[in-house]
Specification:
79% of the residues lie in helices and 0% in strands. The chain contains 14 helices and no strands.
Length: 419
Amino acid sequence: MTAREIVPLHRNRDFVLLWTGHWVSFLGSRMSAVCYPLLALWISGGSAAAAGFATAAAILPSVVFQLPAGALVDRWDRRRVMVFCAGCRALALGAVAATLLTGTLTLTVLLAAVFVDTSLAIFSGLAERVTVRQVVPASQLGSAMGQNEARGRVAGLVGAPLGTLLFTWTRWSPFLLAAVGALVAFANVWLMRADTRPAPVAGDRHVGRDVLDGLAWLRGHAFLRAAVVLVSLSGVFFQLVSLSLMVVLVQEQGHPASAVGLLFGISGCGGVAGALTARWWLSRLPLPAVVIGGFAAWGALMAGSAFIVTPVGLGVLFAAMSFVGAVFNVASAIYQMTATPAELQGRVGATAGFTAAAAAGLGAIGAGYLLDVTGGATGLLIAAAGMAVVTAAALTVPAIRRTRLPAPEPVPGDLVTTT
């Protein structure tokens, strides 16, 4: 019997090109994202409203494009989507750097660039997620998703401080480097050889109908339906935690703003560690233990944070939350990608992302109002109580208690061992 041999991921040419290209691009995205509101403040002469507009311009695409993007990614050649998005993002980011250099950047141009950049990132991110399933053997999907999670955590850990450092040096430099990162992703994806086209479907299709089909499938899947709701609710409480920690450190304990950077730096290390060890945990823990145990661990750590008075101590607890979150994210990605039919991958992923983004946005708004009344420590306890409710709800859902990670079904083009 003639067959091809499974190769390690680091020798899988298409996966390496995809992974490295998007890592460089993602690092650039983290640098530019943290600098957008700072640049809006500078352009406007210190207007907090301008910074708010820049933040809104970055969030709005998730509301507008997430669901149709999932439907379109299920129709289009994913490689072409990623190439187009990377090229256009390079142009948008390069335009910000060029107009800064020439002194012609206006707030209107900046807001347009933010909106275009983040909109293209939504399409590219969904296309890349589906492409991983097409270039990686089914048996290596878990390892691939663990590496992708680690990539994002490292990019977040390095990108934000590097972006702010470059911004204080020369304001155009983080955007120029982000544009270069997008060009690297453009070149890497262009060099891929895998067939990333979706399976042909007979008949005419409308985007609205496709979106509804994805929603209907997700609604009919007991585990994913419950998990999306519970994870989105937990995201609301995480927004409260993030803002509470800033209030505790800066306003209530009097630490300098740099203490917030220290906290998130320590937290990022926990996320990287969780992503790198996720496969080890998932090989030893059943999915219900990861999901329900993750919710419970988050609640306990949030409660503990209300009684810690040092930035390092809070950072360690937040790092533990990030560690759990990384393992949780890898498990969720593996389950969703293996349980979802190939023709619905983009739509189901987009629906989950849309729900989480909408909940996080509402959580961020509500957290601000709540903390004005309660204070940071009380906010952490409220978040812990909310997470305890989420944990209890998860325990009452039979699908959450009984579901196991499915064995992934091979897709056309999977590599197999020689026999």
